[in-house]
Design a protein that fits this description.
Rossmann fold; globular; 8 helices; 6-stranded parallel sheet; 2 domains; 434 Repressor (Amino-terminal Domain); alpha/beta
């Protein structure tokens, strides 16, 4: 764990599903519905299929994700934390979902106004995490360096992407298990804990 004042970073990039929103995606069930082996990465597996098959399953995945996006609920403490940070930094979202679904989710959880046009990237705008492509694109868009940037997420893909991009990584783990500490510079159970840390950092 490193000691730094992360509230002074110029750009905070957030994962969306399970980070800013309450975790509702049942990936075991999604894999079952799509006929994907349980150990496989969903997007990588679909991309490995013949074009017609991949297209049909991507359509089915999009329908599942759209339903979940419309029913998104904000994770505990997120609104207070982000509204406090909004006076100090700029925000972006990097998701393995689609950009359209991400915008729907942000609207549903009352945070759409905090994210500027072009600050939300989905799997069609950047290579999916753990590839750092999306983080690199967002840093270029906002004209910031890795030293000025934070990647915040709930899963290994988020942290690994951040580590590969050379940015500060923040793990929000509502389960409190913190299974990927080697990829995380900071670890918090929830956004209330993160907010308190920010308030208490000199």
């Amino acid at each position: 764990m490193i000691r730094e004042n992360i509230s002074e970073k110029s750009l905070w990039i957030f994962d969306l599903d399970g980070t800013l929103t309450r975790p509702v995606h049942d990936f075991t069930e999604i894999r079952r519905q799509l006929g994907i082996p349980q150990e496989a990465d969903i997007l990588a597996y679909l991309d490995s299929l013949p074009a017609d098959d991949a297209y049909q399953r991507h359509l089915k995945l999009a329908r599942i994700e759209l339903e979940l996006a419309c029913a998104s609920e904000v994770a505990a403490g997120v609104q207070d934390c982000l509204r406090w940070l909004a006076d100090k930094t700029r925000f972006a979202v990097l998701t393995r979902n689609t950009r359209a679904n991400a915008l729907l989710s942000l609207e549903a959880i009352g945070l759409r106004s905090l994210f500027s046009e072009g600050s939300v990237l989905g799997r069609d705008e950047a290579l999916p995490k753990p590839d750092p492509d999306g983080i690199v694109k967002l840093m270029k868009r906002f004209c910031v360096t890795p030293q000025d940037t934070v990647m915040t997420g709930d899963f290994l893909h988020d942290l690994a992407a951040g580590r590969a991009a050379g940015v500060t990584t923040v793990h929000i783990d509502f389960r409190g298990s913190f299974s990927w500490s080697e990829y995380a510079d900071h670890e918090f159970d929830n956004f209330m804990q993160l907010h308190q840390h920010l308030l208490n950092t000199p």
